[in-house]
Design brief:
Layout: E1 7-13, H1 21-32, E2 36-42, H2 48-55, E3 61-66, E4 80-81, H3 85-88, E5 93-96, E6 102-105, H4 108-118, E7 127-131, H5 135-147, E8 151-155, H6 159-172, E9 177-180, E10 190-193, E11 217-220, H7 229-236, E12 240-242, H8 245-258
């Protein structure tokens, strides 16, 4: 039941209809007995700054989850960031403090790796390939490096962005062989799609080299549809596929904690 005491939270995206976070987070609130509600906000990029400024002035607003395409642009709209958000160059969760200050964090990557772990997938020592170099991809790159992959090949339509991400990962994790270039799909133990390709009907595959095979894991960051074109192609060729939803489930607790959500007192 929503009352005058209920704390408000949101998720912002463009488009918004595909997001699964509201039901997941509201279920989490209920499990904690927490008097809060999270609702979706559909905001176009040119209106993002105005939207964020408005949130500073809403006294009962607790925090915001940020997704495509706003994760990179929102970094500079935060008053401060924690963790590795600055190195990653993106934010996916914001806490509003009582004085209206907005504190950002980037939890996509940690949630993604925890989702793999929940499916008994240990990435340590793996040769990995990451498709994409945007906000979520950057977070996943850092998290895979932190988790101990042997190598990380970053593939992106803009070669410059891939090279920049590889350089930043190598600076923070010198033991990981981080590089940009072609996917070399057949040689990888793990292939991760962290692009938005597959989100909309008719989207092309996020890579041309589809030499998937058994003994290989192909993972997705997209939640809906569950089986994206790359997952369908990989499954047809015998690879083990990993859906995007576990990433969200593992992120929920991390995001709620950052936004100051605590269990109700007995």
């Amino acid at each position: 039941m929503i009352t005058g005491h209920t704390k408000l939270y949101g998720i912002v995206a463009h488009p918004i209809a595909h997001v699964k976070t509201p039901e997941e987070m509201n279920n989490h609130f209920a499990s904690l007995g927490y008097d809060g509600v999270l609702v979706p906000f559909h905001v176009q990029p040119e209106n993002l700054a105005t939207f964020i400024d408005t949130l500073r002035r809403i006294e009962n607003f607790g925090g915001l989850i940020v997704t495509v395409p706003h994760k990179t642009a929102i970094l500079e709209l935060c008053d401060s960031v924690v963790g590795d958000a600055a190195a990653i160059g993106a934010v996916n969760t914001i806490r509003r403090d009582p004085d209206g200050s907005l504190v950002g964090a980037m939890l996509d990557g940690k949630g993604f790796v925890r989702g793999l772990e929940a499916s008994a997938i240990d990435v340590r020592g793996m040769k990995s390939c990451l498709l994409g170099a945007g906000g979520a991809a950057s977070a996943i790159a850092f998290a895979l490096a932190e988790a101990g992959v042997n190598s990380l090949r970053i593939v992106n339509r803009s070669a410059g962005k891939a090279e920049d991400l590889a350089r930043r990962v190598a600076e923070h994790y010198p033991n990981v062989k981080a590089s940009a270039g072609a996917p070399e799909t057949a040689s990888q133990d793990l292939v991760v799609n962290a692009t938005s390709l597959g989100l909309r009907d008719g989207d092309p595959l996020p890579l041309e080299d589809t030499a998937f095979h058994s003994g290989q894991i192909v993972a997705e960051a997209i939640m809906e549809p569950e089986v994206t074109p790359i997952l369908a192609t990989a499954r047809e060729k015998g690879a083990l596929i990993h859906f995007g939803r576990p990433m969200l489930r593992q992120q929920i607790r991390l995001m709620a904690e950052h936004m100051g959500v605590t269990p109700a007192k007995a």
